[in-house]
Amino acid sequence: MPHVLLVEDEPAIADTLIYAFGTECFEVTHVLTGADALAAFARDAHDIVILDIGLPDMTGIDVCRHLRETSAVPLLFLTARNGEVDRILGLELGGDDYVTKPFSPREIVARVRAILRRSRAPKTGESAASEDMATGVFHHDAAAMRIHCHGVTLDLTAHEYKLLLVLLEKPGRVFTRDQLLDHAWEDPGAVTDRTIDAHIKSIRAKMRAVRAGAEDHIQTRRGLGYLFSLD
Ligand code: CA
89, 29, 40: which is closest to 65 by C-alpha? Predict the structure, then answer.
């Protein structure tokens, strides 16, 4: 039975979600504040976190940042504001998806199912799920879902991690932006090509912070896409 941690301070919304997940045979732990969410997450294993952005004690974004220090748990944001900023913030911070209020409980359950399917069977290749991989100065620790560069752990968001892994697994192969979206996003229709560019830029900056020049391993093929180069 999948275990959902629901972080939502509005009782009416929480109740409909608890009911919907209950009828679909999910176990739900419901908390109303960010502090309680972090405590609950530290206490129990959860398969996914559903996180409201507007919480009484801190923002859902803050909660996400704390969670990401120790965990790559799948995360679905609930946001009341239908703004691009919220959306990008959610994605940059390592949320796997987001839903704008008002939403139907069925939609949330469907999204959660999709995210869990994705997290259990990564499209990035079966070997990646179970085996470590070393490519030049890069090393993928599959169990920890981390990528090291020159021995230093890259502090990647969930999407950055998935993107870099796709490139890393096939050095020399050019991936189009569409292919990268397809590999690294649950719902590729919800994001644009420019999202890929923004994430690549961020990954490169993090590589560069480890060692100047490391960012050159991700190369741009103008008009085509990106590739990982061993050179
Ligand atoms: Ca709220």
Answer: 89
**Residue 169: closest CA among 129, 114, 113, 222:** 129
CA–centroid distance, 45 to ligand 1, in Å, is 24
pLDDT beyond 90 at 149: no
Mean pLDDT for the stretch of residues 136-155: 84
Same domain, 18 and 113: yes
What are the distances in angstroms from CA 6 to CA 89, 140, 198? 20, 31, 29
**Domains: count for the chain:** 2
> Do residues 91 and 42 share a domain?
yes
Q: Which amino acid is at 118?
A: R
Residue 34: both structure tokens together: 């960010």
**Which of 97, 76, 61 has its CA nearest to residue 17?**
76
pTM over 0.90: no
CA 145 / ligand 1 centre spacing (Å): 30
Tell me, in angstroms, the distance from the centre of ligand 1 to residue 195's CA. Answer: 27
Instruction: Extract the tokens encoding 217.
Output: 């391993």
In whole angstroms, what separates CA 53 from the centre of its chain? 16
Ligand 1: centre distance to CA 134 (Å) = 43
Residue 155's domain spans which residues?
A: 128-228
How many A from CA of 98 to the centre of ligand 1?
14
Residues whose Cβ atom is located within 5 A of ion ligand 1: 9, 52, 54
